[in-house]
Design a protein that fits this description.
The complex is a heterodimer of chains A (183) and B (183). With 183 residues, chain A is α+β, with helices and mostly antiparallel strands. Chain A has 4 helices and 12 strands. Chain B has 183 residues and is an alpha+beta fold. Classes of the chains: A alpha+beta (183), B alpha+beta (183).
Chain lengths: 183, 183
């Protein structure tokens, strides 16, 4: 007699210890993410910084870091944890909602790409975020000093060091020279 | 006294005895290419044959596969071997495709992505092809049944399994259901 492998639920995943490991739940199985390097950490902090500089004065949004969990698919459960994310005012989750893994997907998702991330993984994850409802996904490449922005799978553009990054349509008017993110 | 490292040229690479290995030349240094997997081989041929059928029917130019050497840059020399390419008649040298490496960058470049290829590597390679003059680059993801088409770094479009792949502006009229490429 064979026993079917027991898949983990989102609730069980959220009950895992906060031991500094970065994890995601993919179709009921825990996947541990590689530790980030200093480059990744610095860029992540800078992206969050410039987004916060924009949204805090006008309270037009909130920015989260620290790999919060979002449920992108159900049965089997798939939970993803973006490096930085942003909710615009009007969609900000309540205090109660913030105690659990969230079903409501941020307006802007930022993933800083590590050297070992495979192209297929990144493409898959981007498609997942868009399908789940993100309106803008930034894939940030510290090694190339480029940001690839997806508004949909057919509306994609790259911003290089000499460009200015905008956040249309999520944050109209946001402008950050790409070079500042890789200073 | 230090001796400068002797860099290899594209001509020297072409004249190297066939040792059963495949190489690219990156800034004058040999980079060995590991043999790709079988899915890669199958998909490369499928994409190549779909392109070839269209190109032959309309007598538009040449399609090649098998990592043919394209000289992207000189001094130091950079030679890359795309998985498939298409070059329009008007751009082919007078005597036809050369037996050796070609220093004209084809109109359409196809790179089939392997599971181990990193996102940074793929984006870098795409950027290189575009900067060298390719007008359309396809990054083909067999496991995701997706083709990401780059017309420039500002004009990027991902075609999924339910979409129809076109080859604008390089092959007007070309249309292939993406699912057919991965059948």
């Amino acid at each position: 007699m064979t026993t079917a492998k027991k898949l983990m639920t989102t609730e069980e995943f959220m009950a895992l210890p906060d031991d500094g490991r970065r994890r995601e739940l993919l179709d009921g199985e825990v996947v541990e993410l590689a530790p980030v390097n200093g480059d990744h950490a610095q860029v992540e902090a800078l992206v969050a910084h410039y987004l916060l500089l924009d949204v805090l004065p006008s309270a037009r949004g909130v920015v989260w870091t620290g790999d919060p969990a979002f449920i992108v698919r159900h049965n089997p459960d798939r939970t993803r944890c973006p490096d930085v994310c942003l909710f615009v005012a009007g969609r900000i989750p309540s205090r109660e909602e913030r105690q659990h893994a969230l079903r409501v997907i941020p307006d802007l998702i930022v993933e800083v790409i590590s050297p070992g991330d495979t192209a297929a993984e990144v493409q898959q994850k981007t498609g997942e975020w868009l399908a789940a409802g993100a309106r803008l996904v930034w894939n940030v490449y510290p090694m190339l000093q480029q940001v690839v922005a997806y508004r949909s799978l057919s509306d994609v553009r790259t911003y290089a060091a000499e460009d200015t990054l905008d956040a249309e349509p999520v944050l109209p008017g946001f402008a950050c020279p790409v070079a500042k993110l890789f200073a | 006294m230090t001796t400068a490292k002797k860099l290899m040229t594209a001509d020297e690479l072409f004249l190297m005895p066939d040792d059963g290995r495949r190489y690219e030349l990156v800034e004058g240094e040999l980079v060995e290419m590991t043999p790709p997997g079988n899915v890669h081989g199958k998909i490369t041929l499928l994409v190549g044959s779909v392109l070839l059928a269209f190109v032959r029917l309309h007598q538009l130019g040449e399609v090649a596969t098998g990592d043919p050497g394209i000289i992207i840059r000189r001094s130091p020399d950079v030679v890359r071997g795309p998985d498939v390419y298409f070059i329009r008649n008007e751009r082919i040298p007078a005597g036809g495709l050369p037996a050796a490496y070609m220093d004209i960058v084809p109109d359409l470049i196809v790179e089939v992505v392997s599971p181990g290829d990193t996102a940074t590597e793929v984006l870098k390679k795409v950027g290189e092809w575009l900067a060298a003059g390719a007008r359309l680059v396809w990054a083909v993801y067999p496991e995701l049944r997706t083709v990401v088409a780059y017309r420039s770094l500002h004009d990027i479009h991902a075609y999924g399994p339910d979409d129809t792949l076109d080859a604008e502006p390089v092959l007007p009229g070309f249309a292939c259901p993406v699912a057919k490429l991965f059948a």
